[in-house]
Amino acid sequence: MEFGIFNLLSRRLESQTINQIVEQAAETVKLADQAGFTTAWFPEHHYSNYSIAPSPLMMCAFCAPTTRRIKLGTAIVIGTLYQPARLLSEVAFVDGMTDGRLVLGFGSGYQPHEFKRFGIDLQHSPDITEEVLDIVEGGLTNDSFEYHGKHFDFPHTYMALRPVQPMPEVWIAGNNAQMQRRAARSGYPLIVSALVKDIDFVASLRETAERNWNDAGVDPANMRLATLRFAYVTDDHGDALEFGDSARFQYRLARNLRFRKEELEEGLLPEVPFEDEPTLEELVANNPIGDPETVAERIVEEVRRVGSFHMSLYMHVGSMPLEKSMRSIERFAAEVMPLVEKELGEPVTAAAAE
Q: Which domain holds residue 245?
């Protein structure tokens, strides 16, 4: 069992600056590195305060000098939004900057708001993303390479810039059926997001992914599935609800952007409630949020029901004070990880195994 930390880099308040948001994310990553988390994940989003991070590779490079063991991952590179010849070079370059700790999360995206501004039709994104991934795979694993596809033509080229690993680990993220089938065929781990939903919803995501793996001719028993969840450790229920409020903020903005309610008010998306959204109490109950025993119990239940081998955790969200998030991370490592390890009977991270 592995734990990762996910940094959305959202901007809830007009007073939050780019520098503050980035520095706070970097602080949580440094602490996660010391605490034994395996991976720090960074997103890619454009033109909204849902996330101010347009380049996960830049965040990986930024956090490389201040961390030692933790892997630095893109969650995700939206393949459609890149010129693959440039992406290929940047991936190799950042893998070198991280000394071989780069993890390349790939996906086709889901926000029409972003794609419209790039002049790209979202429905074509999976096909384009697969070709971009073809080029990245081929370019990183060969001394020379060429590619001739429907969307891209890459002439025969000698690869002067080589990654350290020599091929960064690739993960596929999202609920798109075509991309899940690509994960199956390539043997890549799959990341799915449950947002604020309960364990039954997470189990349904696995069932859907298993059908897509079967469609790809791959036994779902071979599936490596990771989940993305909110997590916060506290003995104070009011504190848990405060974190839940910041989690709900992220959920509302994600729903706004998915369903084309993307009108920004002075640069900030409105926090519009949805009819089917859980209450704050339900949101907290649906996620590993609460005292150490409760958090560990919910993680173990998800591992056993869903088969997650990796949980990527939102631990610093919205307008949550940094010092509270840092304390939660410390307690997660000191109190929750040992409980999970004891219950599952195995080390919960690679760092713990060492």
A: 2-353
CA–CA separation, 155 and 146 (whole Å): 5
3-state secondary structure of 166: coil
Q: Report pLDDT digits (tens) over 304-316.
A: 999 999 999 999 9
Rounded average pLDDT over 218-231: 96
299 prior amide bond cis, ω within 30: no
What's the total number of domains in the chain? Answer: 1
By the 8 A CB rule, do 202 and 227 touch?
yes
Spell out the SS3 assignment of 203-258.
HHHHHHHHHHHHHCCCCHHHCCEEEEEECEECCCHHHHHHHHHHHHHHHHHHHHHH
Token reading at 46? 């454009």
Check if the beta carbon of residue 333 is closer than 8 Å to that of residue 36: yes
Task: Please work out, in degrees rounded to the nearest 5, the angle formed at the alpha carbon of residue 106 by the alpha carbons of 212 and 143.
Answer: 115
> What's 165's DSSP letter?
S
The residue behind tokens 């307690």 is: 331
Residue with tokens 């298993």: 210
Decide if pLDDT at 354 tops 50. no
CA distances from 163 to 95, 233, 333 (A): 6, 37, 31
Judged by phi (left if over 0) then psi (alpha if -120 to 50, else beta), residue 174 lies in left
User: What ranges make up the beta strands (E) of 69-203?
Assistant: 71-78, 102-107, 144-148, 153-158, 169-173, 190-193
Task: Tell me the whole-structure pTM to 2 decimals.
Answer: 0.95
Beta strands 289-290 and 190-193, pairing class: unpaired
Sorted by sequence, the CB contacts under 8 Å of residue 241 that are 6+ apart come out as 280, 281, 284
- 42: domain CATH number? 3.20.20.30
Closest residue by Cα to residue 39 from 17, 22, 56: 56
* Calpha distance 338→229 (Å, rounded): 19
Cβ within 8 Å of residue 214, ≥6 positions away: 220
144-148 vs 153-158, strand pairing mode: antiparallel
